[in-house]
Amino acid sequence: MSPLQTLVTAWRQASAKQASLLAAGVAFFLFTSLFPALIAMVSVYGLVADPDTIADQADRLTAALPPEAASFITDQMDQLTAAGAGSLGVSAVVAVALALYSASSGIFHLVTAINQLYGLPPRGWYVVRRLSGLALTVAALAFGVLSVSVVAVVPVVLDLTGAGAVTRVIAHVIRWLVLAGAVLVAIGVLYRQAPQRPPTGPLISRGVVLAAAIWLLSSVGFSIYVETFGTYARTYGALAGVVVLLLWLWIGMWAILFGACVEATRQHIVSDETIAQEARLARERATRARLAVAAEESGEPRGRVDPR
């Protein structure tokens, strides 16, 4: 199947399985899981670093987000880190355990949505599937800690070594390339572990690259739109940050779910609705082709052929 046919079939698969509606539901659960995840990340990161630096690094990580969404997240980070390093260390075990369980809800529903798009029914016990979601949540938390560490460590190393302007530019480019590669790996791991079937193909596939590219480009475009044309602050007032963050999460989840549809198409897993639609379109194309051939044989102009 050509890349264009794969994209068309994946689009039909996403439409047949209501990917946009699933993305909205997953975005809601991720939103409710976001702050427990921040609590867990701050607790873990606070054991090895000064908590006062966490909020500063969060500003850099959220630079690509729309301003309202970035401000909403950083404000929450400021409140969490205001407790200080001592209380973060003491409460780490209990806070991480409770926060991880709460945060796993978003990942659990994301995994459920991906299996829905694959047309795979839930298998195994609920507890086992919940533990699988918890394991992916731990991996996502580790990815978050690693991202913050990369952002935090590179400037410190550059300052200590007295690096020049060119070296700093190269180091910053490499740093963001590493983060981009980490995002690709994270999405690839999700696509391999979420579907309840044996994984096939490479870790970094077309669906993974497409999902990451759509999320990145749409995030930049949405951020520019919110800054330039958006009226969310005037419309929603104090809730503008919540609304913008939910919209950004919805865009990202749609990108990931559409990438999952591309992966399902690549693995020749399509729903009955998509198969029926493909068959109907194939019959329509065949009918038009037969009418065109008949018109040419009878000498009738092609423009007068009625495809119906």
From TrEMBL:
Superkingdom, natural source: Bacteria
TM region positions: 21-48, 88-111, 131-157, 169-191, 203-226, 238-262
Keyword Membrane carried by entry: yes
Keyword field contains DNA-binding: no
Pfam families: Virul_fac_BrkB (PF03631)
Keywords: Cell membrane, Membrane, Transmembrane, Transmembrane helix
Location of this chain's protein in the cell: Cell membrane
Membrane topology recorded in Swiss-Prot or TrEMBL: Multi-pass membrane protein
Signal peptide: none
NCBIfam families tied to this protein: yihY_not_rbn (TIGR00765)
Protein's name in the database: YihY/virulence factor BrkB family protein
Taxonomic source organism: Aeromicrobium senzhongii
